[in-house]
Write a structure and sequence with these properties.
Oligomer: single chain
Order of helices and strands: HEHEHEH
CATH architecture: 3-Layer(aba) Sandwich
CATH superfamily: P-loop containing nucleotide triphosphate hydrolases
Number of helices: 4
Radius of gyration: 14 Å
Number of domains: 1
Structural class: alpha/beta
Largest sheet: 3 strands, parallel
Helix content: 25-40%
Distance between the termini: 14 Å
Shape: globular
Length: 96
């Protein structure tokens, strides 16, 4: 309701592990069906080189058409994303 009221986009945050394809695709389809825009996906609990997680991320991106914003490893202190790219996600706050 808040997202719709303020006409905001969302960033989907998902676990990189087992079950994420179903979760991400269902959430993205629900939001699309309800005209709630999503800018992209951040994957948590990411383990570089894990074949299942890499495939999950690729499948989520393919099936939703959404970009992967970041892959966040356990205990990470920072997002591995350029500040200018991140700032592009904050362009639309509207006060009614």
């Amino acid at each position: 309701d808040v997202i719709r009221e303020f006409e905001l986009s969302s960033i989907l945050v998902a676990d990189a592990g087992l079950g994420t394809i179903n979760s991400v695709v269902l959430t993205a389809e629900y939001m699309k069906a309800h005209s709630l825009p999503i800018k992209g996906i951040i994957f948590n609990h990411y383990h570089p080189g894990n074949i299942m997680e890499e495939d999950n991320i690729a499948m989520c991106q393919h099936m939703t058409g959404l970009p992967v914003i970041a892959k966040v490893e356990d205990n990470a202190k920072d997002l591995d994303i350029d500040a200018d790219v991140l700032a592009e996600f904050y362009d639309e706050v509207k006060i009614k």
